[in-house]
Specification:
Blueprint (H helix, E strand, L loop, with lengths): L1 E9 L8 E7 L6 H11 L3 E6 L8 E6 L4 E2 L3 H13 L8 E8 L2 E8 L6 E6 L5 E2 L5 H8 L14 E4 L3 E6 L13 H7 L8 E6 L5 E7 L4 E4 L3 H13 L5 E9 L7 E10 L2 E20 L2
Parallel strand pairs: 2-3, 4-6, 11-12, 13-15
Antiparallel strand pairs: 1-2, 1-17, 3-4, 4-5, 6-7, 7-8, 8-17, 9-10, 10-11, 12-13, 13-14, 15-16, 16-17
Amino acid sequence: MTLRFHTLDVFTTQPFGGNPLAVVFGGDTLTAVQMQRIAREFNLSETVFVLAPTLPQALHRVRIFTPGRELPFAGHPTVGAACLLAELGLAPKGADVSFVLEEGVGPVPVRVRCTPGEPMYAELSVAKLPEYGPAPDVGAVAAVLGLEPGELGSGAEAPRAVSCGVPFVLVPLRAPELLAAVDFDAAGARQRFAGAWASSFYVYARGYEGELRARMFATDMGIAEDPATGSAAAALAGALASEADRDGTHAWTLHQGVEMGRPSVLHIAADRVGGQVSAVRVGGHSVLIADGTFGAA
């Protein structure tokens, strides 16, 4: 069997920035075990397989694998795959088109915008609205991050576990400078958070004029650190809007991957009506890097 693949850098307008992604076509007969092996071979944060849909409203079905396991939903594979499908003519044509991708979490609406002279831009709307899990132990969180408990928290925000399809421990820091001081203890995280509702860590701090900065650590997914994490950014947008003091649309520009030398820019937003979050969106650009074929037994 010969499979076609493309690689992209997602959440960036520049090659060799953002979060690398592999997109594989022609794998409808592959087993989950085979897909996992291919994902380990690419060894990127995620590899996505574009398949025939099973839902009538979906344009394509996608399955998403980290080097360690399959995910029901992830942001940079969704954004990157949507941009690539539009670029290859495998999505409705137009400068501003919308369609649905079928993922493990359910149908995920996406919107792709093509501006002449710029890389493709896609925005997803989450299939699952924010859900809170048990509050994590602040001391344990600080220990695995190599920080002091007093360095965690920002105003009324404290570490909390939130999911928009994939659970994360959202960890606010008192100052953006502390992001560079994080010294993540992967073994300690596996020991202290084994069996926890959320065991991946999205550490963030507020910058200037609403800007956010973040880092993500997920050894449970086989990812030491991720340059850009749309599912975590969605959880953060949902949490911040849930905890806001007003209804309306809340939006932020989020920078991730800076400490890794792969700067990424994510545009996140959430709508709140009657005190409840009604929608969460994550968007960003993608740059096509390479394409090719390989054989899969």
